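re: ur question from earlier - yeah i can do the single chain one, its not a big deal. heres the input i used so u can compare w yours
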Amino acid sequence: MKARVLLPLFLAFQLVCVGIVSPAPDAITEARGRATTQAQNSPEVAERIRRVENGLLPSVVIKSQPVAGMKLADRMRFYKTPGVSIAIINNGAIEWANGYGVREAGGSNPVTTETLFQAASISKPVAAVGALRLVDKSKLNLDEDSNRKLVSWKVPDNEFTKEKKVTLRGLLSHSAGLTVHGFAGYAADATAPTLLQVLNGQTPANSAAIRVDTIPGAKWRYSGGGFTILQQLIIDITRRPFPEFMRETVLRPTGMTHSTYEQPLPQSLWEQAAAGHQPDGGVVKGKWHVYPEMAAAGLWTTPSDLARFVIELQKSKAGKSNKVLSQQTTGQMLTPQIEGWGLGLAVEGTGRAARFSHGGANEGFRCQFIAYTETGQGAVVMTNSDNGGQLAREILIGIAKEYGWPEYAPKEKVLASVDPKILDAYAGQYEVAPGINLIVTKEGDHLIGAAGGRRIELFPESEDKFFAVTTDLQIQFVRDDKAGVTHLLIDGKTRAKKLK
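and the output i got, formated as tokens:
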């Protein structure tokens, strides 16, 4: 998960507006990459592909208002996302896979199904399977103190670890009480730290030391730092380089032949890799960042390879294929441990709606997968843009409608009627951070939010709460009985003071 200096929620607001007033990049093309399956050559599947490509849906819809499907090519331009790659799982197999657009803005090399993308935090569930393989081999125990097996580095003991210790179960379920949410990576021409330097927060590491600051097991808190400890744990137990262990233990057995945890990416694979892109459409310096935090963020892969990984988990859970994990261990992986989180995966739903998923955000890359435990359905979407997260969501919602996925649809909102005088009071300038302002204006009978020259309509769901239809963005205006409107909250967390 990518760490950012700017407030992420406000950045998300800016991202949904990308393209509203800006010209589309010339590099976006509608050309598809080479397919990987015979099935998609059938007329039935070809028609399904066409419907998906023309049927993207927004994250939020307004009740009783018609929703028209959106074209993938149009949404790529809107989000300034040069390349997208998709793989669809149906009936326990890859039904079709396609690449769209180009690997780098301004270039002509198309995205194909074999183009490599950074998986970012989707590296975590794949790494989790590697650790659980060691559990199956009795080299690790889910509930023992990790310090018993760590050799090169130890989790520093403190007041929080007196009674409860950091365990593998805690590392995998983000409940070990550890710091460091995510990692920013390192520019291609920068000096990357060693793993030990990352663990200790020592120069040239750009992240803080990974430490326990809450009682292990007390609560869920996402921690890329925990998976960095996991990486060191695997290295110490196997005495092998992490990329080598993962290649032999997980990647090859599951058929992920186009994937690697090697960081930096070997030069021999550069021609197969997509370049990352910033919100304004510019290429990331050096094309991509380097992540020595391999287990947390270092996997390079393709949607088809990730689909093969997902299918193996589906089959392993059903006892139909156990190439890496036993049925019992896979069952534990997909069982909620704390707050809807399994061992390395988000898990939700029951019966036919039971599903597991994970997303990823590295510098210049966004990706997402979702898979159903019982039905053999799912999809993987990878993009080469910081704007690609919302695009991936729109693609997945469109796929869900086409393939009849249960309990996966846009959020439905009901419009509220608000007195225009109240809307007048909300107009003004709000300081989200020094030098970063959100301007709210009333136009007719509705509100418009503007940031960085981009505009988005805000729809009321109550007198003081508003939403956007192209994202999960929520804005709440807060007033004082004497002073009037004093500030607003973005997604209930980020406070923006009203200036005028």
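Residues 1-13, 15-31 have pLDDT under 50 and may be disordered. not sure if urs matches, ping me
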